[in-house]
Fold Putative pectinesterase 53-like.
Amino acid sequence: MGLGMISSLAIHVANVDKWNVNGATGQSLDFKLRQAESNRMNITVNPNGGADFKTITEAINSIPAPNSRRVVVFIAPGLY
């Protein structure tokens, strides 16, 4: 790992609390962000079945527009 990678990592570590949506720093979250977080939707993708969808495209297309919920897409290993 080069020196540039180390300083880049340090910048990202220093900014962790700025993008933490769970409010770990004790600061209050924006109302819309809190609402999206409390109404989270999980989607699973597995090309072998046993999930909500078999393709990533199907999973993404299932998210309605406009959308005010946080959507987490869990993608199983496989060939897509």
